[in-house]
Amino acid sequence: MNLRKYLKVYKKFLHTSLASELEYKTNILIDLITAILSLIGSIFLLSIFFQNNGYIGGWKFEEALIIQGIYTILNGITNTWFNPNLTEIVKHIREGTLDFVLLKPIDSQFFISLKKINPSGFLEIMLGFFLLFFCIRINQINLNLSFLTLSFITISCSICILYSLWFFISTTTIWFVKTWNAIEVLRSFLYIGRFPLNSFSFSLRVFFSIFIPIAFITTIPSEVFLGLSPFWKILLEVIVSTVFLITSRKFWLFALKSYSSASS
Amino acid sequence: MVQNIIDVRNLSKSFDISSKEPGLKGTIKHFFRRQTKTLKVIKDISFEIKEGEIVGFLGANGAGKTTILKMLCGLIYPSEGSILVSGYLPFRRKENFLKNITLIMGQKQQLIWDLPPIESFYLNASIYDLDKFEAKKRIKKLSEMLEIDEELFIPVRKLSLGQRMKSELLAALIHEPNILFLDEPTLGLDINAQRNLRKFLQKYNKETNATICLTSHYMKDITSLCKRVICVQEGKISYDGKLDLLLKKLSPVKEILIVCRSEDDAIKLENSGFTVKNKIKNEITIKIENDSITSSLKTILNNFDIEDLFINEPPIDEIIGKVLIKKDYDS
After folding, report:
1. How far, in Å, CA of B287 to CA of B264, rounded?
2. How many CB pairs under 8 A join A and B?
3. Could you read off the pLDDT tens digit of each residue along chain A, which spans 264 residues?
4. In 3-state terms, what secondary structure has residue A75?
5. Cβ(A212)–Cβ(A204) under 8 Å?
6. What is each CA distance from A83 to A38, A74, A116, B128, in whole angstroms?
7. Among candidates A218, A216, A188, A215, which has minimal Cα distance to A69?
8. Do B107 and A260 touch (CB under 8 A)?
9. Which H or E run contains B180?
10. Closest approach of B122 to chain A, Cα-based (Å)
């Protein structure tokens, strides 16, 4: 893979999608307001849950805010990259415009995963980081190199798991053509990621750890922030995210063999 | 000797297609128990195309033309048989193969809808690893050939269909491919836009010696661009050869309306052995085979007192239309 070429192409992707989005100023403004209101609403909801005894699943409100911060960052990444690109796969396949992607001398997964960005998602990412720094202060977390490295690794792994899950579902469009519902279900499950895994019953904890690994997406990175995560959990997250990434890649290449293109 | 750039041997393609009965009952049945059948859309076809050739694929809707084109450019895997395009197996979609080909579809677009076409051109240039200077040079050259200038800087959504198609062509040709696959490129364009597009393709073929495979339902596209046609019927090739030979086969005679000086001359001509279609007073319409048209006209002009004559060619659409109905033209 020619890294220089891919960086050049990505620069072009950024430029063209920013230019496309900036054509509609009002839309961007509405998106920004929605992001702020959504964060305020989520924190308010979380505070209601903690009103009774101040603890849920062994987590204090201030600690649970870390999960909210990580969730907000991931949601921002979802809105910036995954939503505009991965939902487009369905359109590409239904309308047959995937033909143009497949005939370009560039990796098709790279193309369809990164071609567009939604700049309003950046605000959510920034709000998420802002909330995290606030949590670091109120929870008196010691910022050192190993903490920063582990946080970076676990959040990166969360992004990989989220991307792979979404990409996997979108890929099934090649056979099933319409998969909007499955993506909506995935998004609904992701809302669960705003709450500590321990706040759910044992069976749900197993479900959200094995079948839909929401636990890996927000809870483990939050535990790393609080210094509660044992090394094996971090290692497990790295392994799970690698397996997810490789599987989604293989699945895409396999699915393309069944691509029949839309009729003209 | 000109090399074969496309070599297709015993190619077949089957698709699994589900069918549904009409009405609510049919819909429910279709939802729970989908009945699928395997449909062989391409049946054991073989052909070669030489470098620099422009070949038209003719056939009715659903005959399999687009499927052939999509297999040639590597979008669809063949079920049986082999395809070699420019020495590559298309479905492997190797980088060097993809840099050699392009696909243009009249009914689909790759340009970024909200931005001027120039943005899509530079994006494609970076995908094909062209530097800015080279990309600029190619855009200038192609836009001159396509006669577009200001349109390059207007958002695609505000362009007319003709302007958009020209921009689509430029986006698809920026990497200077050797093989062009065109699927109904003039679909929906007005007569002038169609003519301009054909003129461009002729010029492009002449200047670059690119091979062009074309499907179109506009016969003018085929007659003005393609010397050779491949007729596809129900997934099989019913004719592969020169277009003028096909036209001769399908329309072996011409009708000639002769206006004689007097009705007596018309009667004399009627009884002279020519096949007469009709006669009204001093006007007589006869049928002459294409091969003997010159000698027959010489005889008529030398032996009869003729005031005027008109050679009526049957409309090309009508002749080609027969391709869509008849089965085999080689036999």
Report:
1. 20
2. 79
3. 688 899 999 999 999 988 888 877 788 788 878 878 887 887 777 777 767 666 776 778 788 888 888 888 888 898 899 988 988 888 888 888 899 999 999 999 999 999 998 888 888 898 889 888 888 888 887 777 888 888 889 999 999 998 998 898 888 888 776 666 667 777 777 777 777 777 777 777 777 766 667 767 888 888 887 777 788 888 988 999 999 999 999 999 999 888 876 555
4. helix
5. no
6. 17, 12, 9, 27
7. A218
8. no
9. strand B179-183
10. 8
B75 → closest Cβ in A24, A102, A263 = A102
Q: Which residues contact A26 (CB under 8 A, 6 or more apart)?
A: none
Tokens of A32: 């920004």
Does the pTM exceed 0.90?
A: no
Identity of the residue numbered B173: L
DSSP state for residue A82 in the 8-state scheme: I
Rounded to whole angstroms, the Cα distance separating A247 from A241 reads 10
Question: Is A13 in Cβ contact with B98 (below 8 Å)?
Answer: no
| Chain A CB contacts of B99 below 8 Å | 105
Q: How far is CA A79 from the centre of its chain?
A: 8
B15 touches chain A (CB under 8 A): yes
Which of A 243-262 lie inside 8 A of B, CB atoms? 257, 259-261
